[in-house]
Design brief:
With 98 residues, the chain is of the alpha+beta class. Helix content is 21%, strand content 22%. The chain has a single domain (11-96), classed as Rossmann fold, CATH 3.40.50.1820. It has a four-stranded mixed beta sheet. The longest helix has 14 residues, at 83-96. The mean pLDDT is 94.
């Protein structure tokens, strides 16, 4: 289990016209991705207990702060947060990781 001191460091990844702050565990399991998505008002850190267990089970765990959260881009137009944009971000993130 991660605590606040050893939670993975983020990487900023440009996808779908925004930059997402992305945390990863189990990078050695590339090709077997699982994406954990937080809701409002959560944050990627909410998945800190699940990330190590899923990595140990053989997954490449990818946990973005969705647009508008943490250090991810924060578009000003409310329509930039619709389901088309949010799912587009996740699809582009998976494309980024191949």
């Amino acid at each position: 289990m991660f605590n606040s001191n050893d939670f993975p460091q983020p990487t900023m990844i440009a996808v779908n016209g925004v930059e997402l702050e992305v945390f990863e565990a189990g990078k050695e399991n590339a090709g077997n991705p699982i994406v954990l998505c937080h809701g409002w008002p959560e944050h990627a850190f909410s998945w800190r207990h699940q990330m190590p267990a899923l990595a140990a089970a053989g997954y490449h765990v990818i946990v973005p702060n969705q647009r508008g959260y943490g250090h991810s881009s924060q578009p000003t137009d409310v329509t930039a947060y619709d389901l088309t944009h949010l799912t587009g971000d996740l699809c582009a993130l998976l494309d980024h990781f191949g």
